[in-house]
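Please predict the structure of the following assembly.
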Amino acid sequence: MSQVRVIGIVGGGQLGRMLTLAAKQLGFHVVVMNPEGNSPAAQVGADEIVADWYDGKKLAQLADAADVITVEFEHLNADALAAVEATGKPVHPAPSTVRLIQDKYEQKVFLNQHKIAIAPFVKVESLPEARKALKKFKGKMLLKTRHGAYDGRGNALIRNTNDLKRAWVQFQGKALYAEGFVPFSKELAVMVARGTDGKIKTYPIVETIHKRNICVEVRAPAVISIAARKKAENLAKKVAKQLKGAGVFGIEMFLATDGKVLVNEIAPRVHNSGHYTTEATHTSQFEQHIRAITGLPLGDTSMRVPAAVMINILGERNGETVVTGLEAALQLPQVSVHLYGKAPTKIDRKMGHITATGKNVTEARKRATLARRRMGI
Amino acid sequence: MSQVRVIGIVGGGQLGRMLTLAAKQLGFHVVVMNPEGNSPAAQVGADEIVADWYDGKKLAQLADAADVITVEFEHLNADALAAVEATGKPVHPAPSTVRLIQDKYEQKVFLNQHKIAIAPFVKVESLPEARKALKKFKGKMLLKTRHGAYDGRGNALIRNTNDLKRAWVQFQGKALYAEGFVPFSKELAVMVARGTDGKIKTYPIVETIHKRNICVEVRAPAVISIAARKKAENLAKKVAKQLKGAGVFGIEMFLATDGKVLVNEIAPRVHNSGHYTTEATHTSQFEQHIRAITGLPLGDTSMRVPAAVMINILGERNGETVVTGLEAALQLPQVSVHLYGKAPTKIDRKMGHITATGKNVTEARKRATLARRRMGI
């Protein structure tokens, strides 16, 4: 069935790089489209078309060069992606899914329509509406931009009218919505894969830790009750069934203090919270995505080690990329370091990640934390 | 300590490819020298110098471009490699080790000198000497070429004077030696890593299966007695201590029917019998080699799954590379398929490999065997 030889990826960053590696292992050729040349994906042998995310012409060129198109990033030209699909070229996930996810408000409406548990939310188009929302949400809410938000950019916690005024200036000119603040004990995530045949496989539920709104750490598996795990798994499957197109999806969730599990956000692609799968599950999220979009059967998503912890290597300064402490980090057992080949380094830029495995999350965490502490970039 | 940025590899085949992937993950740049362009290593982002294995000038060019030189293949210009080392550029393993291993007879002399258990052997420079050897070895011996032999090329089993005459014609003009035939119950192999600091780590002992003198299957761990395992481990460490230079070495052994373990052959590099480590041990042989030659600490060599079986995907015909049955193979759980991007396919050419993991060797073997049977190339 799989007649795919060339895979086209919109985006050649670290996700495109790890997708390229998985694709090459299975014998596929890869072309990426990326705003800058010598992308992390090109460095591992992907052909490269240098073009802006929204360049529809270059996207059509990418489509001409490939048998199937996928994305590593959702903030792109969804119309151009839909035009590619209209020519009969397979696009995974479906452009309609990408478009839905581009607008976080529409995403919430969609989840709500499909009776998927989420935090209460409301559209806000004026400051008075925002004030009304803050009242409705009992004085604590999140104001979020509808478009272009990722890695926590475009989120503001609002606890009073001063917060609101500040955020209103910050987000000036942007379409917004507000979300009731749900007190939560943990943030969870799960990768879900869907094949072209509609079959669904879920990865283990993991716990994610965010700092400055960026995912910094992932603990696999999440140490939560069986009941919470079941809820999270069922939610993930329910979401995956509603989305169109094949591939891997990242679903971020909250474990609320009242025990409820709510979906926060969906990523229509491989995701930072799934990096641990390279070392820790029988099929990595990257190979799984390649299998899914090329019509190959989905692989085993179970863990092959008891536990794993992933910690991002975020840039610590702005300037030339200089890695320090690799030797010290690798002195620790069961520690894998992944560097993405990005230059220059920038504060909070995702430059690499560390995955440590161990007999439990505590052991893996110790190793990963210590390894990260020993490195600089 | 590690000031290496660019790694030069003599050879860009599947071993060079998997070394390149490991090097890139750790942030190194790679240049390979390979007799043909678009090598498997170049396909995953290595820069490439196209040159014959014995081209000393191009080897010097490779050395100029790199901070450390290593090899994926030992049948190369050892003098040129030594000349590179003489300029002060680190070469791993040491050119003297490569030269030693190029001559299988000298290799045996060396092992014998260091009191490492091997089969009895004798140099043969004429047909009468060969007849004498056959008598000495009680009518059953192996006649082997001293140079350029790999994947079993250059070995002949001699049981009578007719066999001898045929082999003598076949090997005409080649330097030869003879080895007494030792009845064995299993063929074993072990990968050993040695750091630039002299530290040694051994991988699990595996069982290797050969057909037509080519390694076709590797079972990890080898199902052997504790006593045999200890003997094999000790032998491997003893060998590694005697070899010069850092890196990973493959040591092939026989488990004789009398319970003795004998060293058969050494590969001064990553080896087919270590491919299973990518899925099955905490540090793959490829990452380990990169760590070793760049002065990084050696990684954990223990298994992260109970068992793994690797089966080579050897070419089944001569012609255009067309992979069939990938979909059917990937329907099996815990099966990883690695394709090397080689073209054309040739009978018995190493085109890829399959590694299956499982709760024991029997389960892993079933999966790997079935997956291999479902594929064609």
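The first helix of chain B runs from residue 14 to 25. The CA atoms of residues 163 and 169 of chain B lie 10 Å apart.
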